[in-house]
Amino acid sequence: MTKKLYYTDGHLFDFTAKVLRCEENKGRWEIVLDETAFFPEGGGQAADRGNLGGVKVLDAHEKGGEIVHYCDGPLPAGASVAGQVDRELRLCRMQNHSGEHIFSGTAHRLYGCENVGFHMGEGDLTIDFDRELSEDEIRSIETQANEAVRADLPIEITFPSPEELTALEYRSKKELTGEVRIVTIPGVDCCACCAPHVNRTGEVGVIKVLNAERHRGGVRLVLSCGMWALEDYRRKQQSAAEISALLSAKRDEITPAVQRLLHERDALKEKNALLAMELIRFKAAQQPETEGNLCLFEAIPDEIAVRELVNLLVKKAGGLAAVFFPGETGGYRYIIGSRSVDLRKAAKAINAGIGGRGGGRPEMIQGSAAASEDEIRGFILAFPKA
Ligand SMILES: [Zn+2]
To answer: Which domains does the chain possess?
Structure first.
């Protein structure tokens, strides 16, 4: 059994311990100490990282009561070594884990929510609750959770006896056996947990909900606390400042400024479509009526406008009415219509002649072509009616 120093002191970053075992496995060394301040992966939180006697601790797992440190180098068994837990990472994770307890305890007290899922990422954490919450409910949980931070309450760690445990009301995700560690925040939360915590709620700094979405009959929330929340605030402030500069709008007026921009864009789109149709009618009017085929190359990269042009040209051509326009990745796209030729049947021959692919209905086909303008024009104009 490794003695878990992080169990009772989350702020212990430097410690000395004895190496009990060191074994190589797939390029990493698995090191077991008599005691450790390194928190192993567990309960939705990743393992601490840091240094141990000059080697790097990359990961840590608990196996049958022992904590195995996965390191990038060996340490001699029996040696006394100094360990340093990555302080910044641990402090941020404690702010977020304690913040999660405060939030989940508050949600449980106010709305009877059970926490059915927890995962801590790098910069935020995810909580799943078993019931849906409205925006207002989430906001009041967030406010009261931050009230608990402001009250700077103690966060107490206890190991109750089985008898004491039966009498205790606490949140827990599963049936627990053996020694149970209870984390209590008076008046806010009481929960079984194995992770390191800050000493007082004030250390959490701030608890902020970043996102909420429906999830399996309940709600999935993304939260950020403490320094991670500060980083998030900085990123958002930066984005708001950049958008504000781009739109020449005051920072608290960027939403109406974006709405204005979208309206302008929609109006331009509409105007553009009208102009395109106007242009197409003009172009179609310029084409002579013919018993044979028509073949046009247009710069308009708008399929709807091209289709309309083909519809107008079909009335003027006895054979094929073909329009080619620029493809998105080079070459041409085409739409071909006809009153007399069954294009579904002719598609294979047409594609073979213009290096193309595509198909459609008897009266209209569309696709892409790889041949040159001259080759395509020569082929289409010579294409027989029957
Ligand atoms: Zn916990």
So the answer is: 3-85 (2.40.30.130), 91-238 (3.30.980.10), 273-382 (3.10.310.40)
